[in-house]
């Protein structure tokens, strides 16, 4: 009889132990951060364009606007940050995260960060409410000469002819060395886009050309390199992107897409008859079915290249064929400012009218 009682007690204890272990396992799974957007209970209040989209390591989505600061969405509601909260400017160009989990904002006039508690401005600003201004090292200093590492964050430097580099400890301003072959007046205009590539290369797009930096030397791509006449086809670079096949895509505001593949450089838009024959390249609106004013370029997990055009909506290139999405396909606007691939490999699109779309593989669903 005693043996039966002991056996029953042993079975009971084993069952209880397994139940507790299973409960702890379930609780552990539940505590992991979700990387999906839950049913929306709030609406984004931005009315200006969405210049930047970013998902942080916790799964929150950040949206940078053209005039109204930045918003963060936690899956249920939005929080907003503007110059009144310490941002250097309300026009947001890009959003990044460092290895410490700090969120960084590149604005029209400088660089700011958010540590989860407060916004810190790292550049000089006219905003009197920003009390946390950190000094920037210039490359006139010995500590701020041109160099790079894989964990660096890079930012545009407003109207200055250079960039900001954050090395994990300090923000440095690095002025580009003068390049006579890039601009006849020996001046480099401000950076318009930055793309990290392979082989330790980082690309900087400017109004007058592209500079590539590998940690040692600069590579220059200008009108002369491309065989373009400055008077007829002036470079006005708005976007650059190096894809998984080491191809460099250069988006212009007027002459379309330029494609650098190994030593070959072609006008991709012209080759595929996506430049209108009567295009004046003077800023006038381009007709539908063209790819002339390209403000953003991205690549999805399948290797498709996506282009956001100023006048002709969203373009997808699968390596052989093109597909064009416009207001006829349900978009509220044909001016695309940002494209972003999140942790779930889903594509997000920010439009000039403040709307945000997500592509499900077949159609576009308006998120906000």
Could you describe the 3D structure shown?
This protein has about 375 residues and is mainly β. It has helices spanning about 1-30, 225, 270; strands at about 50-55, 60-65, 70-75, 80, 90-95, 105, 110-115, 120, 135-140, 155, 160-165, 170-175, 190-195, 200-205, 210-215, 220, 235-240, 250, 255-260, 265, 295-300, 305-310, 315, 320-325, 335-340, 345-350, 355-360, 365. Strands 1-2-3-4 form a 4-stranded antiparallel beta sheet, with no helix packed on it. A hairpin with a 5-residue loop joins strand 5 (about 90-95) and strand 6 (about 105).
Concise structural overview:
The chain is mainly beta. It contains three helices and 28 strands.
Strand and helix layout:
Elements: H1 2-31, E1 50-55, E2 61-65, E3 70-73, E4 78-81, E5 92-97, E6 103-107, E7 111-114, E8 119-121, E9 137-138, E10 153-156, E11 162-166, E12 171-175, E13 191-196, E14 202-206, E15 210-213, E16 218-221, H2 223-226, E17 237-242, E18 248-252, E19 257-261, E20 264-267, H3 268-271, E21 294-299, E22 305-309, E23 314-317, E24 322-325, E25 336-341, E26 347-351, E27 356-359, E28 364-366
Parallel strand pairs: 9-12
Antiparallel strand pairs: 1-2, 2-3, 3-4, 5-6, 6-7, 7-8, 10-11, 11-12, 13-14, 14-15, 15-16, 17-18, 18-19, 19-20, 21-22, 22-23, 23-24, 25-26, 26-27, 27-28
Protein name: Diguanylate cyclase
InterPro entries: Reg_prop, WD40/YVTN_repeat-like_dom_sf
Pfam family, one: Reg_prop
